[in-house]
Prior knowledge:
Two copies of one chain form a homodimer. With 149 residues, chain A is an alpha+beta fold. Helix content of chain A is 40%, strand content 18%. Chain A contains six helices and five strands; from the N terminus they run ααααββββαβα. In chain A, strands 4-3-5 form a three-stranded mixed beta sheet. In chain A, helix 2 (19-31) packs across helix 3 (37-44) and helix 2 crosses helix 4. The radius of gyration of chain A is 18 Å and the shape is flat. The A-B interface holds A 64, 71-76, 79, 89, 91-94, 100, 102-108, 110-112, 114-115, 118-134, 137 and B 64, 71-76, 79, 89, 91-94, 100, 102-108, 110-112, 114-115, 118-134, 137. Strand 5 (121-132) of chain A pairs antiparallel with strand 5 of chain B. The first copy, chain A, binds a DNA duplex (25 and 25 nucleotides) through helix 4.
Amino acid sequence: MIESEFKRRLRERGLRITPQRIFIHRAFNELGRHATAEEVHARVEPWLPNASLPTVYATLELFEEMGIAHRVAAGSATALWDPRPEAHHHLICRSCGAVEDLDVSIDSFAALRAARRRGFRAESSELIVSGLCQRCQTARHGRHASEPR
Amino acid sequence: MIESEFKRRLRERGLRITPQRIFIHRAFNELGRHATAEEVHARVEPWLPNASLPTVYATLELFEEMGIAHRVAAGSATALWDPRPEAHHHLICRSCGAVEDLDVSIDSFAALRAARRRGFRAESSELIVSGLCQRCQTARHGRHASEPR
DNA sequence: CTGGATGCAAACTCTTTGCATGCAT
DNA sequence: ATGCATGCAAAGAGTTTGCATCCAG
């Protein structure tokens, strides 16, 4: 989402347009894919040296409410936010925790209908494929040391 | 999985058959669905008052390696382990964090094939549908207080 | 016996909260 | 001027690690 549109939507909601929100939005867009709060924070730092991590968290939550960001269901790993508007899915390595995008389309119509029947208001759906990434397959016993989980 | 089979598979791997492993396995099976480590631990307590939470964690991880349990990708919520062997999917309320099973079948063949093409060894796939559960839809602004996230 | 498994306590990471200050409106 | 948003610090939750002890094989 472009910046002017973002500002307009903030105004619509009666929310303040602050430098933090603007720069966090910019950093988030530039990062492109499933970024952690930490990564967003690091990217904002050069522009706003005093920006705090709690503000980044609050702003990412705001983005989620606005539909700009989507928190990726990444198992026990660190929370990831994904800025892509198009539907897509994720591969998650159960050994090292790496997350990759998967650009295939999945027919989740039956699932969404079943959800609605149960009184659940579905907003998005995402396929999580878990297994072992290429690196972890070759590493002994499926887990290479010196890697984040 | 029945207990004798479980013991056999432990032996196969050269792992010890300890009371903790037996009772955690039993508790996990009896709980049935997406249980937290805490819940498993509470269930084991009457049988083994000194069982520790770290042991429960270690054992659930072991179950996952053995293919007995599956860690549910539940966003930022507390980790859940699911004992069901059959493929199924989950509804996750973005407001209160509740997780429900969804028994529909999804054709994820294209996704699994795409994963394999990328060198990823897929072991399981799960559709995560996020949105608002019935309770949170009626609660004001989509979030009822006094509920776990 | 022997080393893998456990219990305990403590550390660690990520995320959220409380509160005084500041700034967008 | 007004009160929402921020920064800082600290708390909180969940999970993992280190190490001495114990017990299954």
